[in-house]
Design goal:
alpha+beta; Jelly Rolls; Immunoglobulin-like; eight-stranded parallel β-sheet; six-stranded antiparallel β-sheet; 11 helices; 45 strands; binds alpha-D-galactopyranose
Length: 739
């Protein structure tokens, strides 16, 4: 044997012997359907389709398929895994995310499932994993093992999917039983100092002793700007807690790293996070009128518009040129009434307080089109999921009214989970016990000058398996109108049971046309939001059939992968955005989200959140806040109240940005604005800080004389039409170019 071959063999043996984990990314087989036989290791899956578990099954030949699917993988689990581990108790299998219900089997033994009771169809999107004792006879050490996963998808994307590193089998390590808990909020009374409590904790039988290292680095220079080391000992119910205080910070991105090193095993636990930093300048005490420059309603329908304005209270509102039929409440700025004559009415708005007057020219357009600029509001789903209730919606409405409506935010939308199990005797849809009086809730929201939204499905059931509107469309539309509903999100879901297996475009349109006709029979403007995840390339036709907005994707979650892969893949839909009709890449995932009773801080870093809001603004997307507004922190509030950023989203031209430059590590988007100026987003999509020089001449933008940093609301200097900007990883520079 040649020496080099021997060396290569030894390397392979060594690599196997010291394997700490087994990647479970490649070699998967898949089929749609359902059979208990498919959990059996002896089953022959050779004829099944090979599938990439990084992507949903929709993306791999099963477009629009909802229902059961099975995945199988053959894998050798080497005993060296156990031998080389510090702790030898448990093996963890991680298989990305399951959408929705899942059950994981190893060699025919059920290891874990994510649904309650015996109904796999009640599962929800979440991590797919299993933990098992190393003594469990289900594991065949050093032999062929079969992992089988049964999935049930209720709608939208389905199957297993995730990032490569999420598909793994590994031994639990001593530090796997410990956790650095950074869930607490940052305190920052001013821009410069920041403090936060962090815990290192365990709920295992192990006792830990070691050191906790804390460092703060400036990603622009990689310089360490602060470090602190503490002895840290902890055990179950005795967490180690430490409060860190930082001073003299600039309003920019910093990287905070916490590292615990366990004395006994030498193992490390590392957690990184990014400090919040506020870019939006403080709202002026002087009056300022915000929001779009136009508002559309249909003739003869109830009119409701609250003039968004900020400044020290009390504010006094005046409007000249109001069309006949409308009246203004001078103390609140709410305009109500009805206008019968179609026309574009130019009006002059003045808002004054003790410090001055703000003036704005504004158009009230009475005609066929509503939603002339993207919807700005809140929706219950990303915060509360199916556990939405009357009180939670009222908290949202009150907070929008107090903190956000001055910047143009107006919709308060209930998503799935409000419907009763059965219709009333007359067939009318009725709310469940969580919503005792829908009309009273609607009156409360309207009383704040805000708009009220609701949710249903064209199918017999919604995605959350509540009642849908199938064959009750006229009746439901009329019920909504009676309640005073201003917005309907209409979600395909169990219409999948009614539609043919591979619907034609006409078949995709059909249920949405039926409800459109029903809405048109009511005497109300009800903004119509289509939710069918972009099936049949809905952006090509959803506007024509009367959709005011339409989802272009499956559901978003609060990760960079989810947000960026949705947000940066909207180019196909871009030409279809126009006043009254907008692409909807799904709701916002900033603030405290949770899809249920427990909320957590979004897993997006502050930089990623600036990217999220900037990108959605450039895309002229609806901005529907998806967090618990009862827990609105300072960072999130500032993120949502930058009037110059919102003005890009609300520009009356209604255009969606085009991508003008694509590099491996950064992207440039440009959005045309109605006055000839342009909004430009430079997005650093790489994992490192980037210094980027943009040659405006090369992008055809050389003729602009004023360049404004929109988040900071400051003009920037230009050097020979070259713009230099330093952008942290996953962050953005958002500019407005004008003359
Ligand atoms: C689907 C939609 C979500 C939400 C849920 C409610 O998943 O895409 O936005 O409305 O249904 O069940």
């Amino acid at each position: 044997m040649k020496k080099s071959i021997l060396l290569a063999l030894l390397l392979v043996v060594f690599a196997t012997a010291s394997a700490q984990n087994i990647p479970l990314l490649k070699g998967w087989k898949f089929t749609t359907g359902d059979s208990p036989e498919w959990a059996n290791p002896a089953f022959n899956d050779q004829n099944w389709q090979a599938i990439n578990v990084q992507k949903s099954w929709e993306a791999q030949g099963h477009q629009n398929y909802d229902g059961f699917g099975w995945y199988r993988l053959h894998v050798v689990i080497p005993s060296s895994l156990k031998a080389s581990a510090y702790l030898k108790d448990s093996l963890r299998i991680e298989l990305g995310h399951a959408d929705d219900g899942y059950a994981v089997y190893l060699n025919g033994h059920l290891l874990n499932q994510n649904f309650k009771g015996d109904n796999i169809q009640k599962g929800r999107y979440g991590p797919c994993k299993a933990l098992l004792a190393t003594q469990n006879p289900a594991i065949l050490w050093d032999k062929d093992n079969v992992i089988a996963v049964r999935i049930f998808d209720t709608g939208g994307d389905g199957g297993l999917y995730g990032e490569p590193k999420q598909f793994n089998a590994e031994m639990l390590d001593v530090v796997d039983y410990a956790r650095i808990n950074t869930d607490g909020d940052f305190d920052y009374s001013d821009q410069k100092s920041l403090s936060k409590s962090v815990k290192v904790e365990t709920n295992s039988q192990y006792q830990y002793k070691g050191k906790l290292y804390f460092t703060v680095t400036d990603p622009a220079t990689d310089k360490l700007i602060y470090s602190k080391t503490d002895d840290a000992a902890f055990a179950t119910k005795k967490a180690f807690e430490k409060r860190y205080e930082l001073k003299d910070l600039a309003p920019k991105s910093y990287t905070l790293t916490y590292t615990f090193i366990d004395d006994r095993s030498g193992k490390k636990l590392i957690k990184t996070e990014h400090a919040p930093y506020i870019l939006t300048p403080e709202t002026s005490k002087k009056p300022r009128i915000n929001g779009a420059d136009i508002y559309g309603q249909q003739p003869g329908h109830p009119f409701l518009y609250k003039i968004p304005a900020t400044g020290v209270k009390p504010l006094k509102f005046e409007v000249s040129g109001l069309p006949q039929g409308l009246t203004l409440d001078k103390a609140t700025g709410v305009i109500t009434g009805t206008v019968t004559k179609r026309a574009a009415y130019p009006v002059q708005i003045n808002v004054s307080n003790s410090l001055g007057v703000a003036r704005k020219k504004f158009i009230i357009k009475i005609g066929d089109e509503i939603g002339l600029t993207p919807a700005l509001g809140w929706n219950s789903w990303n915060a509360f999921g199916l556990s939405v209730n009357d009180a939670r919606v009222r908290v949202a409405a009150k907070n929008i009214s107090d903190k956000l409506s001055g910047h143009g935010w107006s919709y308060v939308n209930i998503d799935d989970g409000w419907e009763a199990e059965k219709r009333g005797d007359d067939g009318a849809i009725v709310p469940n016990e969580k919503f005792p009086d829908m009309k009273a809730l609607s009156d409360y929201i309207h009383g704040l000058g805000l708009k009220f939204g609701i949710y249903s499905s064209p199918g017999p059931m919604t995605c959350g398996r509540y009642l849908g509107s199938y064959q009750h469309e006229d009746q439901d539309a009329q019920t909504y109108a009676n309640w005073g509903v201003d917005y309907l999100k209409y979600d395909w879901c169990y219409y999948g049971d009614i539609a043919p297996a591979s619907p034609t475009i006409d078949e995709y349109k059909k249920p949405y046309q039926v409800m459109r006709a029903s809405l048109d029979k009511t005497n109300r403007d009800i903004f119509y939001s289509l939710c069918q995840y972009g099936m049949g390339e809905s952006w090509n036709w959803a506007g024509e059939i009367g959709g005011n907005s339409w989802r272009t994707t499956g559901d978003i979650v609060d990760t960079w992968t989810s947000m960026s892969s949705i947000g940066f893949n909207q180019l196909m839909a871009s030409p279809h955005a126009r006043p009254g009709h907008f692409n909807d890449p799904d709701m916002l995932i900033v603030g405290k989200v949770g899809w249920g009773d427990n909320q957590h801080n979004t897993r997006l870093t502050p930089d990623e959140q600036y990217t999220h809001i900037s990108l959605w603004s450039l895309l002229a997307s609806p901005l529907l806040i998806g967090c618990d507004l009862g827990q609105l922190d300072r960072f999130t509030l500032n993120l949502l109240t930058n009037d110059e950023v919102l003005a890009i989203n609300q520009d009356i031209l209604g255009k969606q940005a085009a991508r003008v430059l694509t590099k491996d590590d950064y992207l440039i988007y440009v959005k045309d604005l109605h006055d000839g100026s342009k909004a430009v987003g430079i997005f650093n999509i790489s994992d490192n800080y980037k210094n980027i020089t943009v040659d405006l001449n090369n992008l055809g933008l050389g003729h602009f004389t004023t360049i404004r940093d929109v988040w900071r609301q400051k003009n920037l200097a230009l050097n020979n039409k070259a713009l230099k900007t330093g952008i942290p990883s996953h962050a953005v520079t958002l500019l407005k170019l004008s003359n």
